[in-house]
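[User] Once you have settled down, look closely at the record that follows, and write a paragraph about the fold.
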Amino acid sequence: MTPRTALVTGANRGLGLAVSRRLLAEGHTVVTAARSHAAAEETARRLGPRAVPVVLDVADDRSVRAAHEHIGPVDILVNNAGVLLDDGTPPHRVQPRLVADTLAVNTLGALRVSQAFLPGMLDRGWGRIVMLSSGTGAFSHGLHAGTPAYSISKAALNAVTVLLAAATRDSGVLVNAVNPGRVRTRMMPAATTDPEEAAADIVWAATLPDSGPHGAFLRGRRRVDW
């Protein structure tokens, strides 16, 4: 594949760091986005000269605009940044504030960053957008009542994926959501899947050929039901 420029949100640890590392290994330039300057800089330093740091808070309009102005257009966007704030809380007790805070990052953050960088992809006639979703947001799998805010946010993210894909059909831009499964990160330390293993499927979706899936929910490089 022709070397591209990729933006990975939440690139400073866990799955975002693993995705950044794999994209670099495949010859791409990676913009390592993190909420703090120190985290973004340290991540880029660790990854090497083709890693470019940027401060980006996906929940803040001004931060996203500033990041876009700073780094310019990208070819690949991996919307990885996410939060889990309500583990173990039943839906009839979850605080609406936690739901709103979770939606602000997991759903609206991904939409906000996509809206910033998608026009440049459309202008150039090529782009890949990958949403990091979850089985907890899939009606086919069964929404998880133990993390209601997280599940709501991922179900909504799946809807964002479908809508953006419909709006970009036949444009050269492919928009898909990936369910990486339960990945061992700070958010889920007891999970068994290694971040590097999960990153392989995410990078596959981020570097699809033009004939690849569009508007799909992907698990293990296969379409699954929403």
The chain has a mean pLDDT of 94.
